[in-house]
Structures are given as structure tokens and as C-alpha cells.
Amino acid sequence: MDRSIFTVLFLYFCCLTLLTFHFGICIDSSEILCIPSERDALLRFKHHLKDPSNRLSSWNASNPNCCHWEGVVCNNVTAHILQLHLNTSWNPPVDGFYFEKYIVADDRSLFGGEINHSLVDLKHLSYLDLSRNDFGGMQIPSFLCAITTLTYLNLSDAGFIGNIPHEIGNLSNLLYLDLSYAAAYGEIPYQIGNLTNLLYLDLRSHYSEPLFVENLDWLSGLSYLQYLDLSSLRLPGCTLNHHNQPSTVNFSSLITLDLSDTNYTDGISLVPKWIFGLRKLVSLQLRENNIQGPIPDGIQNLTLVQNLDLSYNSLSSSIPDWLYGLHHLKFLNLGSNDLSGTIFDDLGNLTSLVVLDFSVNQLEGKIPSSLGIFQNIFTMVFSSNSIHGALPASFGKLSSLRHLHLSKNKFDGNPFEVLKSLSKLSYLNIDDNLFQGVVKEDDLANLTSLKRFSASGNNFTLKVGPSWHPTFQLSALGMNSWQLGPTFPSWIQSQKDLYFLEISDTGIPNSIPTWFWETISNASYVNLSHNHIHGELANILKYPISIDTFDLSSNNLHGKLPHLYVNVSWLDLSRNSFSGSMTDFLCRKQDQPMKLQFLNLAANNLSGEIPDCWMLWPNLVDVNLQSNHFVGNLPQSMGSLAELDSLNIRNNMLSGIFPPILESTGKLISLDLGENKFTGIIPEWIGQRLLNLQILRLRSNKFLGHIPDQICDMIFLRDLDLAQNNLSGNIPKCFNRLDAMFLKNRISTLLWVKGRGIEYRNLLGMVTNVDLSDNNLSGEIPREITNLDGLIYLNLSKNHLTGQIPSSIGNMRSSESIDFSRNPLSGEIPSTISNLSFLSKLDLSYNHLMGKIPTGTQLQSFEATNFVGNNLCGPPLPVNCSSNRQTPDDDHNGKKGDGHKVNGFFVSMTFGFIVGFWAVVAPLFIYRSWRYAYFRFLDDMWYKVQSFCRL
Predict the structure, then answer these.
(1) Comparison of pLDDT for 622 and 105, the residue scoring more
(2) How far, in Å, are 193, 488, 798 from residue 558 at the CA level?
(3) Which of 213, 217, 705, 918 is most buried (most C-beta within 10 Å)?
């Protein structure tokens, strides 16, 4: 939790009690009439507000008693206005998850506009709450600081930006001040230190728009503070080290302290010792501060602590024994650290626990059975560890459990044998484990409170009757990799509230039933991919698809493409058998532009020219049309896709010159035109207009001419694939300007290594690639290309490159694959190549290299075939560099025989054949280097024949 709810309620009621006692407030003030001057001040204030939902409809002249107006509280004796409750309430997330449809509904209730100066005329105002509104980016009005009667001021998350006015220090009566998310990129004024009566202070900053603090000395005067939240503030030094902490402050009354996300340095943070002296502390939150090493021992002094959050740090110890002695703990979050070891049975001593989070660590072993005694536990999170074994039977006794997260571990067995009795469980996530078994109706019958059920990536089989109706109503269902077939699961029809549905790879061989579309009509995400669903989708659908994110990829659907409603934003129909033209799908006019951002129609049977209707789809960001049968060039309207950052039309039959319409798609990050029939030159403007490109793939086309130097202006480029074209000339020497080849970053791309496509995802880190193979490039390998120390894959094979391998090749320390084969390169292999410790592929075969292969662990581990076709020696070749290679001498001193006369011609022919045969063949048996040279000659001849035929 972000704060102790008990502390918040306590302080709130303290403030309210003080107000009531001092002013004699009575909320039920039906007999009093408000003061006309104050009523007029409120009407002037309303006049400048924006109230789209008309929440202040009661604020009008025909209703003169302003004490009855919405959000207004008056003194029941003097009739002065004391409180204004103008905050906007917000719907809580559903089971801990924020859904857009709930948040959008709240936006229509936000107040906006301007805050009028007339509030200053409310001379007795003590309580002002304008939180959770949208005041259009204006700065906090400084005149609010003239209302010195205020004891409660809440301006949090109200759309303010800029600096907090230093006049805030004039509000000396304040007990409660909440300015969280109330400013951006400003500085906390030290005058807040003048508010010596403060009990509650919240200065939280948004992580992307942090507030600055010069120092914390001004806190020294706030000795009555019970609640202090400084999370996400940006300090000149590290908050959690001993810099910038209050020097003389006495925080003996502090109950809640939040210093989360205040470390903006790369150094190690330490928890300062003064925190361990806060003996009244009930809530301590230090998440996201780069705290390293063991969990600080000093925390054991905080014997009253109920809420302890050390998540998102770098804690690397095991869980210390003393932690199990903090018997008041209710909320314990150690998630997202590097904690290791096992969880001991002593954890069961923390019987007051309500929330327990050990997620994203390196914990192993089994879950202790003692956790089954947690009668008050509400949320339990163990996801992303290495915990194994079956769930303990005692878990079936967790009668209060609502949320259980066990995903990404190594749990096994059938968990439903244990969990089936948890009738209050509302959110269950057991994704990506080793769970297995048959799940029957009885195993799910008692889970009547279940709202979110996610059990993908296991090996379950659901066996229920055709008339089964679950006892729960789900908002989210994830059952990827279950066996749900052979028929389409009819029980889904009973789930009327589905917002999220994922049943990919579940062995469904049927067509989609008509009732399904009505069941998911309100869903936002549906994934039916990797099944065997068949049918003609366009004929099944009565109405266009309206699901925001819809994935039907890798099925057997055929026929025409279906129609979409304008609201759909993500559609994946790839790897099916849709056929025909795209025209009906793409050019169908709507009342407003389509909102689609992601469109994947790859690997279908679509044909014809790509239609010229893209102006109807202006929001497209990612378009994938690869592996179809499109012909012609790209249509002119594709140039109107101003938001496009990825275009993949690989493996079609497109032709013409490099598409000139791409000159206007300046936001492109990834462009793949590979495996088509494009011709002509690569235009120079590519490096002037497409400066954001990170991936450029033009392989297997018919491009010719030089590689333009302007490509080097693409400083973000990390995957350049121009292989299998007819490019000529020298390799540009400016490749050392490709800055992204020096940096580590993350991106998905398709690389061609060893003739196969290998897809690298974000989790593998940065992938950098230069592939210029199978062209007609000439000249030397530029030394500048070896400066790319972040380059992982380099392929210059099958060209006409001459000269020596640059001696600076050892600088390419990130390289995993280098292929210079089938070039007339000469000279020795540079010894610096032994520095490439990550090298897993090196192919230098069929060049004119000579000498000894450099000694290095990596080089000697490669196959000899990677060095054949040269004049090389040493391991891994079987040729000994010190051996004397001699050719047998011919014997010209044969004696004449005295026997029978023999026909001289036949004798000479036979003798010549034998001598000639063994003169050629014998050395091939005796000398390996001769044998390699001979086979290289044959391979070269075959390669030239192939190249001639291809031309």
C-alpha cells in the first residue's frame, strides 16, 4: 500500500474533530441561512469554473441558502462558510486493476477552468479540498495562501503545474497539507517549514515530472508531524544517504514516513540510522531507492511497524530471522529485489499479515505450510521466483484470501485440489508454472467470488459437461495452453462481464459460434490465437468487429477480411488463409477515421495491388503485410500515415523503384521491404528523411548502385540488412557514425544468421546487425566499421572485397558472428581477432588468406570448414605450420627392358596415364592443404555458375 490507511483516517478525524470542537460545526444545519456576501463569492467562483457534469447545479440564485449547496458546510451558529468539499471522487480499481472504461467515466466529472479570487472573501474558511480535478495546467494561485484561517488544504492531483507559491508559509494554522502531484518541475519552497502545527504533509511528486528540493533543513521546525510523504522528490544528493537529511529535527511523533523513489544517483543508497530511532513509526516505505546489500538490521527496532515496503531495490540477502519477530506487521512488501534462499516456517509467526509480497526475487524451496494459519491474509504474492513443489494443503484454510499470485515459478501438482475451498478468492494468477492435471466442475464450484482467473502456461485439461454453468462471473479469463477442446467451450456464454479473454493454444478445432460475439461484445481484449479455428469470418459476423484488441492469428480462417468498427485499435489476423483483395476491408468508408494503430495481416493469401485508401486509417502505427502475394508498388496514400513507425511488407511480389511515398513517413523506426522485386538505386533521401530508422531491411531485391553515404546519418540505426542485391562500389567508410551500434538498447528484429531467420525479442537485449552479403561490393573492408564495438552480427560474405582484414577487428568486442567468406581477401588473420571473447561464429573460408590461425580459445573451437579454401595452417585445421610440404619427384632414369617388344604408343599412353593420375591424386591424399585448394576451386566454379544462372 502507498500509505497506512489507518493513519490517514486517524489524522483526518483528528482534524475534523478539532474543527468541530472549535467552531461548533453541525453538518445538519437545516435552520440556518448563509451570509449573502459569502453566497455571492461562491457564485463568482462558480462562474469561472468548468463543470461538465453540472455537479454544482444547486449553486444558483433561486436557491439562496448556500449552506445547502453541494459541497458546502456552514457553521450552525454563525452561518459562515467553513468547508468546501470540491474534490472529485474516483472509482476504485476493479480487483486491483485499472480499466479504462471506469477512468473515462470519472473524467466527465472533473472540475476545470479557473479558480477565482473570490475565495479570499470567505473569511472563516478552514477546510478546502480541490483534489482530483483538472485545472488545465495552471499554477497554484498564490491568493489561496491569503486564506489564513485554513487548517485543511488539499490540492493534490488537480492538474496544477509549475512552482508551489512560497506564500504557502503564511498558512500558519494548517494541520493538514496535501500538495501531492500539485506541481511539476518546480522547487519545494522552504517556507513550508513555517507551518509548525502541521500533522500531515504530503509532497509526493510524479516520477516523470519531479519536484526539486535544495535541502531538507526546513523540516526541522515540523516537530508535530505524524505523516510525511516525500516520495519521488528529486534531491541534489541521495536522500537515503546521510546527505540532505534534516539536521536537528525531532520526528518522535512520526507515524508514517514515505521516502520512496528519492534516490536519483547511480550510487548505493543506505538507510540512515535516524529512521531506526522512530519508535512510533507504523508505516515505513523506502521502495525504489537502489538500496543494496542485506535488509537493514535497524528495522528490527521499529517494533510497532505495520506497513513495511522495501520493494524495487537491490536487496540481496536471505530473509533475516528477526523479520519474523515484527508481530504487528500487516503489510510486508519485499518484491522486486534480489533476495535469495528459502522462506522459513517462522513466517507463520506474522499472524497479523494482510498483504504479503515476495514477488520478483530469487527465492527457492517450497512454500512453508505455516502460511496456512494466516486467518487475516487478503493478498499473497510469490510470482517470478524459483519456488517449487506442490501447494501446501494448509492453503485451503486461508479463508480471508482474496488475491493469490503464484505466476512464473516452478510449482507443480494440481493446485485446485487445495484452492477449491477458497470461496472468497477473487483474483487467482498461477500463470507459467509446472501445474498439471484434470480440472473438474467440483474443483471450481466453491470459487463463487472469482473475478479474475489467469492460469495460462500450464498443462491443465478442463473436463466439464456441455451444460456446465460456472458459479462465478469473471471479468478476466486467461487459460492459454489448457486443453479446452474438442468443441468450442460453451460455458463461456455464461460469462456476461468478460473484459479480458485469452484462450490461445487450447486445441479448439471448431468455428466460432454465433453466441460468442454477443458474449464478448463489451470485451476490450480477446485472444483466440494458435488454435485450429476455421470458417469464413466475414460470413459469421453479423456486425463489424468492435473489440479494442483482437488476436485471431495462427488459425485456419479463410475468405474475405472482416470489417471493423472505428474504435478497434489492435488487430492480428496473421498466419491464416484470408484471400482476395484488401479493397473491401481497407476502403470501406466510415463516419469518422479509423482508430486502428496495429494491423497484422502477415502470412495469408491476400493478393492484388495494395489499395490506395490509407487516408482512412490515419492512426496506424504498425503495419505488417509480409508473406502475402501483393504486386505493384506502394500506393500514394500510404504516405499519409504520419504516425507510422513500423512497416513490414517482406516476402511479397512488389516491384518498382524504392517507394518514394516513404519520404513523408518521418516517424518510421522499422522498415522491411525485403524479399520483393524492387529495383533501382537506394535513394540518398533515405538518410535525410528517415532519420529515426532503427531497422532497415532491403535484402533479396534487385537494388543496384552504390550504398549511399547518407545511410550513415541514421544515428539510431542498429539493423542494416542489404544482402542479396546487386549493390556495387565500396563499403562506406562513414559507418562509424552509426551511433546506435555503439550503444546497448532493446528492440525486436528479424536477423538472418546462417541462412535462417532468428527473431530476437526485448528480453535478449540489444541486437545490432550489418549484413551486406551476396552483392558486388569491392574495395577493402573499411577500418571504420571495426569501431562499432556494439555490433553483434557482421556479414560481408560473397562479395569482391580485397585487401587485408583490418587489424582493428579486435575492437568489435560485442561481436558474436562475423562472416567474411567467399571474398578474395589476402594477408594474415589479425592476431587481435582473439580478443573477441563472445564470438560464436567466424567464417573466413574461401579467401586468399595465409599463415597461421591466431591462437585463442574461441578460434580453436570453430570447425575447420570455417577456414578452408585459404593457405592457412594451425588448429582447427589439421595442417601443421612447421611441416615441410614437398611434391614427389618424377623418375626420369628408367632402364630399357630386354624383353618382348611392346607398342610404344600404348606403353607411353599407359605410363603417362598412371604417372599423371598419381601426380594429381596422390598429393590430394597426402597433403590436406592441396586437397582443400582443389575443393575450393570446384566450389568457386560452382558458385560462379550459380551466379551466372541467377543473372
Answers:
(1) 622
(2) 70, 18, 41
(3) 213
Q: What is the mean pLDDT of residues 807-812?
A: 93
How confident is the model at residue 97, as a pLDDT? 41
Contact, 668 vs 689, CB < 8 A?
Answer: no
Helix axes 904-926, 928-950, angle to 10 degrees: 90
Q: Say how far residue 738 (Cα) sits from the centre of its chain.
A: 25
Q: Which of 272, 299, 263 is nearest to 283 (CA)?
A: 299
- Whole-angstrom distance, CA of residue 400 vs CA of residue 379: 9
Per-residue model confidence (pLDDT) at position 933: 47
Residues 6+ apart with CB under 8 A from 747: 694, 695, 718, 719, 762, 766, 767
Give the pLDDT band of residue 107 (cuts 50, 70, 90): low
Tell me what the mean pLDDT of segment 658-666 comes to.
Answer: 93
CA 467 – CA 463 distance, rounded (Å): 12
**Cβ 454 vs Cβ 435: under 8 Å:** no
Quick check: 266 pLDDT over 60? no
CA angle 63, 68, 69 (to 5 degrees): 75
Could you give the angle at the alpha carbon of 931 between the alpha carbons of 928 and 937, nearest 5°? Answer: 145
What's the pLDDT tens digit per position in 471-491? 999 999 999 999 997 889 999
Write the CB contacts of 370 (distance below 8 Å, at least 6 apart in sequence): 345, 346, 347, 348, 394
Give me the amino acid identity at 664.
Answer: S
CA dihedral sign, ordered 761, 764, 766, 767: negative
Q: Which residues, including other chains, have CB under 8 Å from residue 655's CB and lie 6 or more apart?
A: 631, 632, 633, 676, 677, 678, 679
754 residue type, one letter: K
Does the pLDDT at position 809 exceed 60?
A: yes
Give 776-805 as a DSSP string: EEEEEPPGGGGG-TT--EEE--SSEEESBP
Measured distance CA(44)–CA(823) in Å, rounded: 83
Stretch (H or E) spanning 476: strand 476-478
Q: Are 405 and 426 within 8 A, CB to CB?
A: no
Which residues are CB-contacts of 908 (< 8 A; sequence separation ≥ 6)?
Answer: none
How far apart are alpha carbons 306 and 696 in whole angstroms? Answer: 55
Q: What is the dihedral of CA 870, 872, 875, 876, to 10 degrees?
A: 0
Q: What cell was used for 415?
A: 493446485
- Give me the pLDDT at residue 249, please: 57
The one-letter amino acid at 525: Y
Spatial contact of 831 and 853, defined as CB atoms under 8 Å apart: no
Summarize pLDDT for 908-939 with one digit per residue, the tens: 444 444 444 445 544 544 444 444 444 444 44
**Cis before 878? omega within 30:** no
What does the block give as the cell for 862? Answer: 570453430
Please answer whether residues 506 and 480 qualify as being in contact, where contact means their C-beta atoms are separated by less than 8 angstroms: yes
Q: Say which DSSP state 888 is in.
A: P
Question: What is the average pLDDT across 421-430?
Answer: 96
Distances from the Cα of 264 to the Cα of 233, 261, 288, 291, 293, angstroms:
9, 8, 10, 12, 18
3-state helix, strand, coil in the chain (%, to 5): 25, 25, 55
Q: State the chain's maximal CA–CA distance in angstroms.
A: 152
Identify the DSSP state of 563.
P
Ordered DSSP codes for 678-716 = EEEEPPTTHHHH-TT-SEEE--SSEEEEPPPGGGGG-TT
Kind of pairing between the strands at 749-753 and 756-760: antiparallel
